[in-house]
Amino acid sequence: MMEILSETAARALAHAAEAAVDEAEAYVAETAATGIKVYGGKVEELTGGSSRGVGIRVFRGSAMGFAYSSDLSREGLAATVKAAVKNAQVTAPDDHAGLPRPAAGYPQGELYDPGVTETPLQEKIELALEVEAKALAYDQRVSQVEQAVYHEAQSKVAVANSLGLEGAYRESSCYLFVQAIAAVGGEMQTGISFSTARNPRDLDAPACGREGASRAVDLLGAVPVESMTCPVVMDPFVTASLVGVVGSVLTGEAVQRQRSLFAGLEGERVASEAFNLVDDGVHPRGLASAPFDGEGVPAGATGLIERGLLTGFLYDERSGRRDGRRSTGNGIRGSYRSIPRTAPSNLRVTGGTATREEIIASVDKGLYVTGVSGVHSGANAVSGDFSVGATGRLIDAGRLSTPVRKVTIAGDILSMLRSVAAVGNDARWVPFGGSIEAPTLLIAEMSVSGR
User: Fold this and answer.
1) I need a surface site. Which of 29, 86, 189, 440 has the fewest CB within 10 A?
2) 331 and 205 share one domain
3) Is residue 259 part of a domain?
4) How far apart are CA 111 and CA 289, in angstroms?
5) 9, 166, 293, 371 from 6: Cα distances, Å
6) Rounded to whole angstroms, how far apart are CA atoms 42 and 434?
7) Is 322 in the same domain as 426?
8) Rounded to whole angstroms, how far apart are CA atoms 439 and 356?
9) d(CA 228, CA 186)
10) Parent domain of 232
11) At 10, which CATH number?
12) What pLDDT digit, counting tens, does each position of 371-423 carry?
């Protein structure tokens, strides 16, 4: 099948050559997904779907035209090229536009596990049922499981351009997700968890179910607290949500559009020495890993913040040319229906040495935050100001105590990063706001608004 996709890309380029364009690119992708949702010990939903298509970019001078189609026949490819050429005729020239040249090679890594297709459907259903059962059995106060879901996806990608670039790969992923509800009296609290892998048999259903239930139970009895300024410990879920916001504006494109709080700060200290952030497009456990990006540029690891210093930005081909730099392999596509845009792949907070328990024990009076809401609407990417709702537990003399709800943590992103006092050694992959490997973080001081 990979050969068929590559042949399709080659046929599209042949049509583009006949249209006498200066440069052309064909991006061919095929995806298939299956979803299973259970409730009350029974399958509530079973869905499946697939798509296949081609996206074609052509350049006439410095003007780009793009078109896509799910029709991969000879006639369909010819019509798609014709539409792309027509679009190039009405597109404004861009001196930085163009396609990448072939690379010497691509990083090697196994992104596809045949277990995703070889595992029987009934076994996948049993995984979702086990997640639900383990959550309900965790504590008698877990009244129901709102969601217990298994989902899998497979993708095949081929890209080629008229400069001689060619590449293809295949990848798979799957996950379990649970949303448990704990109730006592008239109070209800929610907890979530997930497990990710490339093979369904590598998913940990019992741990997923128990964690979702425990996060709900731990919030029972939560109350608002008095406003205060104190140390804040963020669990990996919360760290991931905020790192996703940070990563989204650590791109050359965001800086060029004056939409990044990091503009003009390259080489400056933007975080404490304890904080390191890297975009790792080839990490074997990162679900956004690939041998190359949506333009065919080799993926790799790009340091963004090293010991608190802002060392660089992420680029695709166009934004890199505009800054006189090479693409970092971060021209990301949502599908064959879209052109590349600069975005992170797998963001990783690295270098943590302290355990979660050690971090909590180091705090006399503070707040342990296990959930936030309104991150993307409550964070300003230009100013860095943010204000988000939070839930969690108070820390009293180094121990977790009263559950807390209806509070707000606020500040600005740069001040928060510069106040990172400790980084945990418990980093885990969290699919919130992208693919992010996030640990527990201790922020030395933050504003907490309560009663």
Assistant:
1) 86
2) no
3) yes
4) 8
5) 5, 8, 16, 44
6) 31
7) yes
8) 9
9) 28
10) 222-451
11) 3.30.2290.10
12) 999 887 778 888 899 999 999 999 999 999 999 999 999 999 999 999 999 99
